[in-house]
Amino acid sequence: MTRLLPLSLFFAVSLPLAALAGPPQTVFVQETGPNNPRNSEGAFVTRKDGSILYVYTRFRGKHAGDNALGYLASCISQDGGATWEEVDEPLVPKIGKENDMSVSLLRLQDGSP
């Protein structure tokens, strides 16, 4: 019974807080197109200046599989995610034969992403 008490307290606090957040909103949609069959495995980080950086895997060519050609690309929002500026070029130089994918981002103590 004592094990259920912390869980009950968690739900008692978190459920009302979740209701305050409002319904989920889509803040970013990334379309595919010719020579861009897939976009995936992205991560967001808030930068020191308050802008939001989104880095993701952008696939190119005709194939969309995990071993297809791809690179890490980025988008930046200066207004809290309302609009996004897309940079359609590799974020880092290609190293090796495979694509770059599945990025993780962490803002460091000094504020740099």
TrEMBL record:
<protein>
    <recommendedName>
        <fullName>Exo-alpha-sialidase</fullName>
    </recommendedName>
</protein>
<keyword id="KW-0732">Signal</keyword>
<dbReference type="InterPro" id="IPR036278">
    <property type="entry name" value="Sialidase_sf"/>
</dbReference>
<feature type="signal peptide">
    <location>
        <begin position="1"/>
        <end position="21"/>
    </location>
</feature>
